[in-house]
Design a protein that fits this description.
The complex is a heterodimer of chains A (193) and B (323).
Chain A (H helix, E strand, L loop, with lengths): L1 E6 L6 H12 L3 E6 L18 E5 L5 H12 L3 E7 L6 H6 L9 E6 L4 H12 L18 H14 L3 H15 L1 H9 L6
Parallel strand pairs in A: 1-2, 1-3, 3-4, 4-5
Chain B lengths: L5 E8 L4 E2 L5 E2 L7 H6 L4 H4 E9 L7 H13 L6 E6 L4 H11 E2 L5 E4 L6 H7 L10 H11 L8 E4 L2 E4 L3 E3 L8 E3 L6 E4 L1 E4 L11 E2 L7 E6 L17 E6 L7 H9 L4 E4 L11 E3 L4 H13 L21
Parallel strand pairs in B: 1-4, 1-5, 5-7, 7-8, 15-16, 16-17, 17-18
Antiparallel strand pairs in B: 2-3, 6-14, 8-9, 9-12, 10-11, 12-13
The chains are: A alpha/beta (193), B alpha/beta (323).
Chain lengths: 193, 323
């Protein structure tokens, strides 16, 4: 999962650091930007369109956060906007949150000082279960031996299922039967206390 | 740094095609269409407070009257608006950008032009691009254009795809997919990768702002090819005020053509991207884009009386159009 993380708090902000650590721990590829520090070096290796999720965290919405929010909504990307509990919402964001189309992807979470990671975790859990996670949109290059290839050819012929579909079906069968994997999924996004 | 919310003026002159969530084509054909059109892009409200202004319909071909109208609307709002985004036909965007550059000289507000990938509903239907996922590019182009208004750009610029290009240097680019414009001299003011990176050191011209109201298009424009004759019957050219010839070569013009230029009662502009070999009577235009030269001629003809050295206009770098 590729996550773009934008924070407009100070560089010493504990929550911001913890979010970054958490995202990396759950295996996300994170590209981060703060209002004082430009995008990290990973950005050059990943096209913007490949970003799956955008996380925006701050005390309030600044111009750059507004830009990223607008970009994410226009590109139909999932976006979580983390703002402190009790702060007044920007009128434009408030308006956007009433838009039926935009709110399918745009999520607002109000955090308190001690629950910001929980908000991120809740969001990522729901993200992992949406239709996008089931889309076969990741291209894979797989090197096989002649013997395995011959088997796949034979299997495809005898089952009348193309090789890629057969492989996918079998991997999904393995996933469903794998208890350790199920256990991992159940706790993947849990915040370690 | 938390910035104040911008109040921007959005001028609509074609190039407004986008697809709604049901993949239906939406364009602005009249002022009444603007509300529904803007509603498709609620995210724009996050970036700025928008004042939309209708200039022309999606299917209208732009003329000097439209360019003058856009310039007038901008001039009237120079004090009150944070910046200006002009959405206009992609197929005329180069000339529109250049026309505005000559009409609005040294203004101290940023003007950014952008468009959908295709313009005019007829063209869109013919190309059958309703299935495109990119929504004709307009949403991203607009978001990026709005963002660029935070910067002080010396002259009107084109924001399209991943490129921010000075309007007077922009040319068509047929090889780069969504980037349908490029810079003649590889001079880009900004690029979009992760967000927008705008070139450092850009600023408004310090020279006094000059606002012009008129630009004229009653210029006979044609291409010259060596060996192919043209015969100008000046009696039949009464509706024109000038002749603009684009040279497709760097050869010396044939004597018969030179004779016609010398005898012309109208100013004759000779354009070639790098070098012009013509008689002294002609106004040589080179080292700039074709659209910059043409817009300059249109502006010069309309404001001839106010220009002290009209015949030397080709050599004068009015707004940074010369390379």
């Amino acid at each position: 999962m590729h996550i773009y993380f934008y924070s407009n708090t100070s560089e010493t902000d504990q929550n911001s650091q913890q979010i970054l650590q958490y995202l990396r721990r759950v295996g996300a590829t994170v590209i981060s930007e703060t209002s004082t520090k430009k995008i990290d070096s990973l950005a050059g290796t990943l096209p913007m369109d490949k970003v799956d999720v955008m996380l925006i965290y701050g005390q309030k919405l600044d111009a750059q956060a507004g830009y990223w929010l607008a970009w994410a909504v226009s590109k139909n990307k999932d976006v979580l906007c983390l703002l402190p509990e009790g702060t007044k919402l920007d009128a434009a964001l408030e308006h956007l949150l009433t838009d039926q189309v935009a709110t399918k992807k745009l999520h607002l979470a109000r955090y308190q000082s001690n629950d910001v990671l929980e908000k991120v975790s809740n969001f990522l859990e729901t993200f992992g279960q949406d239709d996008l996670a089931e889309l076969y949109n990741i291209k894979y290059t797989l090197r096989l031996s002649r013997k395995i290839n011959e088997y796949l050819d034979w299997k495809s012929e005898s089952t009348q299922i193309d090789k890629a579909t057969w492989l996918r079906q079998n991997i999904q069968g393995l996933m469903e039967a794998d208890k350790d994997w199920q256990k991992y999924l159940a706790t993947k996004f849990k915040v370690k206390k | 740094m938390v910035k104040a919310r911008k109040k921007i003026t959005l001028l609509l002159a074609g190039g407004t095609a986008l697809l709604d969530q049901n993949k239906r084509l939406l364009t602005v054909q009249s002022p009444e269409d603007i509300e529904l059109w803007l509603k498709q892009m609620p995210e724009l409200g996050l970036l700025a407070e928008i004042e939309p202004i209708f200039v022309s319909a999606e299917n209208d071909i732009l003329t000097p009257e439209h360019w003058q109208a856009i310039a007038r609307q901008i001039a009237e709002r120079l004090e009150t608006s944070s910046g200006f985004v002009v959405v206009s036909r992609a197929d005329q965007l180069l000339l529109t950008a250049n026309a505005l550059s000559f009409l609005l000289q040294n203004i101290k507000k940023t003007v950014v032009l952008t468009s959908a990938l295709r313009s005019g509903t007829t063209e869109i239907k013919q190309k059958n691009i309703f299935g495109q996922k990119n929504d004709l590019g307009l949403r991203s182009n607009l978001i990026n254009a709005f963002q660029v208004l935070d910067y002080s750009l010396p002259t009107p610029a084109i924001m399209f795809g991943t490129r921010l290009i000075p309007g007077v240097r922009a040319i068509n680019d047929h090889d780069q997919g969504l980037n349908i414009f490029a810079s003649l001299d590889d001079n880009y003011w900004g690029r979009v990768d992760f967000g927008i990176s705008v070139k450092a050191g850009l600023s408004f011209h310090t020279a006094k702002t000059k606002l012009y109201e008129k630009i004229k298009a009653n210029i006979l424009v044609f291409d010259d090819l060596p060996g192919l004759a043209w015969d100008l019957d000046f009696a039949k050219l009464k509706n024109y005020e000038a002749i603009f010839i684009r040279l497709n070569h760097q050869n010396k013009l044939e004597p018969v053509k030179i004779k016609q230029i010398k005898e012309s009662p109208y100013p004759v502009f000779l354009y070639h991207p790098t070098q012009v070999q013509g008689p002294d009577e002609a106004i040589a235009m080179s080292n700039c884009t074709f659209e910059a030269a043409l817009a300059k001629a249109m502006w010069a003809i309309a404001n001839k009386d106010a220009l002290s050295q009209f015949t030397q206009i080709g050599e004068q770098n009015i707004i940074g159009e010369l390379i």
